[in-house]
Amino acid sequence: MTVRSRSSTTPTTFGRVFATLAVHVVLGPLIGAAFALLVLVPLAVVTLGPSVIRAIGSILAAAPWLPYSYGLLPAALVGIVVVLRERMIGGPVPWRHTAAIGLLVGLVAGLFSFGRFPATNPYLVGLFAVSGLAAALGCRLALTLLRRWTRT
């Protein structure tokens, strides 16, 4: 079976493309930020003391759009790559491919955000990469649940 015939058996409709991009753009930055906070807050408490929790909470309360300023472009890029992969290869993207796409996009975004020399911070680059992985897998789970719920 060729690539063309496989992709024609599972059409990529406008609704499917829109849902994939919308889930990645809306939920991706929030999932990535939540994962990053789960890692950063305990480390910050150990390093700086318990008063840092109030500081982080006040920053997030004052600027709830902050996860989107860092994560909107990488999340949209993951959504676009997932849609292109679905269209070119056909069928839903496997979990391991979604994980690889999220990790790679998160790593590149982390290098662009925190990897500028001479102030390279490999910890933040790695955290950004793993947050991209968590966001991609979380969006994949949300899409799977959404498609299962709308199919019935």
Helix content: over 70%
Q: How many structural domains are formed by the residues? A: 1
| Low confidence ranges | 4-9
Look at the structure and give the mean pLDDT.
Answer: 85
Written as H for each helix and E for each strand, in order along the chain, the element string is HHHHHH
Shape: globular
Which structural class do the helices and strands define? mainly alpha
Q: N-to-C terminal Cα separation, in Å? A: 30 Å
Q: Count the strands?
A: 0
Task: Please tally the helical runs, counting DSSP H or I stretches of 4 or more residues.
Answer: 6
Strand fraction equals under 5%
What kind of sheet is the major sheet? none
Instruction: Round the Cα radius of gyration to an integer and report it.
Output: 18 Å
Task: Give your account of this protein's structure.
The chain crosses the membrane at residues 21-45, 65-85, 97-117, 123-146. There is one protein chain. The chain is mostly helical. The protein has one domain (18-151). 84% of the residues lie in helices and 0% in strands. The chain has six helices and no strands. α1 crosses α4 (66-89), α4 packs across α5 (95-114) and α5 (95-114) runs antiparallel to α6 (122-151). It is globular.
